[in-house]
Fold this protein.
Amino acid sequence: MAIERAPEQVGVDDALLQLLAQQGRRVPYPVGLSAVVIALMAGDKVSPWFSGLWVALVFAVLALRWWALGRLPRLDDVPVRRRLQWAVALSALNGVVFSASLAFAPYLSDYQRMVQTIVLLGLCAGSVATTAGYLPVLLVFIGPVTLANALAWVSGGGGVHAVTWIELVLGALILGFGWILVSLARDAYRVFVESVTIRAQQLKSNQQLRLALQQAESAIRAKTRFFASASHDLRQPMHTLSLFGAALTMRPLDAASADIAKHMNTALRSLASQMDALLDISKLDAQVVQVTNEVFSLSSWLARLQQEFAPAATRKGLSLSLDCPGGAYVESDPMLLERVVRNLIDNAIKYTQAGGVRITAERQGELWRVAVHDSGAGIAEAEMAHIFEEFYQVGNPERDRAKGLGLGLSIVSRLVDLLDLHLAVDSKLGVGSCFSLSIAAAESQAMPAAPEAAAQCLLNLRVLVIDDEEPVRLAMQTLLAGYGCEVVLAGSTREAMVKSLSNPPDLLLADLRLRGGDDGIAAARSLRSAVPGLPAILISGDTAPERLREAHEAGLTLLHKPVSAEQLVTAIEAAMAERGRGRDAAAQARGAASPAT
């Protein structure tokens, strides 16, 4: 009955066959040369036919081993143990052939016999490395060669020479040398087995790591898909409510109704800010956020943020102070950097119950260190490694919505990497925390004049709205009609094309994702083929990175649901102003190209 081998031993035997195959292709060259040397020493005293026949036999055995050992690793249908037995038989044949060279000993001088012994013992020593010390293969080679070598000395070359004590000692030393080689072989084989086992464990660990990485990437993709689906589904009704709420505040209302509308819009803006946090994560993961560095005044920039957050701090009875030199200038992206500092100040106010929050700016060589200090509860050392994880919040087990979703510091971490800044955290439990940023310092520059407010151009503007959900279309129509726009509604690109044939629109507002594989990008391209230069704005509740990247590459303005009335009006004015500049540039180009009269 066949004995089942452990998986570890199977791996060791397979590796041993691979090693024997490799050495079987390398060994013939030095071993064949050694055989030629022995034959030449006996050439003038032994029949050339005899020495030539022995050399031919040596090369035949070497060729057989070269061919057979090279095939053994590939014979998967033959048990490994059987293949190892064949390797042992080939090694025994090689040992017998080389031990036969000692038949030349009676015809050699003492010097030549010594050379022959050294060559044969050298081959035995080399076989320890070429067999990885595997005793079954090793012993059948060095056994015949060592015994025949020792016998040749203690017998006086087969009775040809008188046996002296020196020859007896040499015979004993040869046997002792063989015993030492066997001891070394055991150690070598043990090291070989350990190395193969470690390599197998490393391969297994690498496979487990790759599997874990694939599972993590799959989980991240699933999370992103969930964000996209949940965000899109939630943003649609929020967007509709936002539009109707904005339209409602434009109507004449009594004081109580106006107060209700105000609180409703406040709640919608709070919910929208939390949805925007999800959107920020998706946009950063999609790598569609571009960095636009510029030099700006750090003091006035921080002063604006202090004024903006001062009411929130006052409502909690906190102080909010700023310490920044007036001549501080930095070079970074002010919009993205503002998201970072805004999150840090917002967190500091949220998690501080008494005392205050300090914003400081200090010059350190070529950098400005901007820090937000608070006198809050601080962060425990065990939680420090988790504060930048998504949805992780310190001291909010009940998931109080007033404290956000736990995405602020996750967004900060991504933005800091994008801006190539250094973020440091110093916190002591019960004392407070300090989050600091190191920003590249810059020399003061003449600040560009603020652009004039865009002209209100919505009156009598013909706007084509494409959305596959009727409530959204009606809400958009209600809001835009309040601004004096003429609104045309369509549920698909095909319907929009039909309605645009008789009276082309001045502006297109299209949802990014429509039914039946239709989308706002395709709608904009189709309508621009009929109305060249048509301004187009995409509106989307989608947060999927690939969809955001697609919209970004299309070069269209993208608004994210829920869209406030102010955002919508600002985007429309910007789109119409851009179209006006394009027309002016085209007119100037035509004037420059026309010949002088």
Summary: The longest strand covers residues 356-364.
